[in-house]
Target: Methionine synthase
Amino acid sequence: MLETAIAGSLPKPAWLAEPEKLWAPWRLSGADLEQGKRDAALVWLKEQEDAGIDIVGDGEQFRTHFVHGFLERIAGIDWNLKTPMGIRNNRYTVEVPTVTEAVRRTGPVHGPEAAFVRGHTRHAVKWTLPGPMTICDTIADGHYGRRADMAMAFAEVLNEEARELQAAGVDVIQFDEPAFNVFMDEVAEWGVPALHKAIEGLTCKTAVHICYGYGIEANIRWKETLGGEWRQYEAIFPALNASRIDQVSLECARSHVPLELLGLLKDKQVMVGAVDVAGQDIESAEEVAGTIRAALKHVDADRLLPCSNCGMAPLPRSVAEGKLRALAAGAALVRDGL
Ligand code: MET
Model:
């Protein structure tokens, strides 16, 4: 009951990449880098287990960024052809690589890494992948013409990858779709169909993560424009509840999401964000427990998994460690009282 998990990313150790930065450049290369990523994943497996996190992961130590880290190993993308793009409906502009031909997977992306993680923990393992809509909002299209078509092409690539992750012993495969909170009308139209393509044939648990972003400046400013009640989930949860995805991961801690919206996910397992990632102060176990208890008014205890609001990649390492412990301790408090 109330098994804990995290959205995915954790900070890279300072010997592996520049700390407190998204898209942090690696500090190692070649074989040292490959070894360093594995060592970092081991550190975080141990930290998660010692903190009391039930469903663990690699902390996304094998990639620079949750979207481009996967795309780097996909063919059909020109990394030198940079196109400026107003990501998440112009929240911020970055130069992104461009899809110039049909995308395809030329070999395993994370399969061997997932097998490594599986071999080093007895806990359930979650692996995260970028979702098709969010990929399409983080890369320019110079080939497909319609975002929905490009999303379907990436969904096929993701499905091949997901089948390998499952074969490597991963228990939960999560697709990260923060773009669902921005392009709400397109979620039912092609976002969910693309996810269905991505999970085709899987028997492991599947999840989708939808948040209000990392604790970076651009997101904090955006959130300030959203008003007192954040009702984006209201527009997309009906389509997600009707979908074949097993779990929905969402933001609840210190946020303006009205918790009654969780009631729209009555047929799903719900990963409730009970630690925030926008600030550096660490929640007390009581505060985490309070968020979980408030969510329990709308989600049955046997469907609720306490989680982090989003990834912790840009946080200082000690803060992330503290938040892992707070999350597990808060969940334990609530469990004891059930
Ligand atoms: N799995 C990703 C992470 O935890 C999700 C990012 S959504 C902005 O970092």
In short: The pocket of methionine is lined by residues 7-9, 60, 66, 128, 176, 178, 209, 211, 213-214, 310-311, 313 (CB under 6 Å). DSSP finds eleven helices and ten strands in the chain.
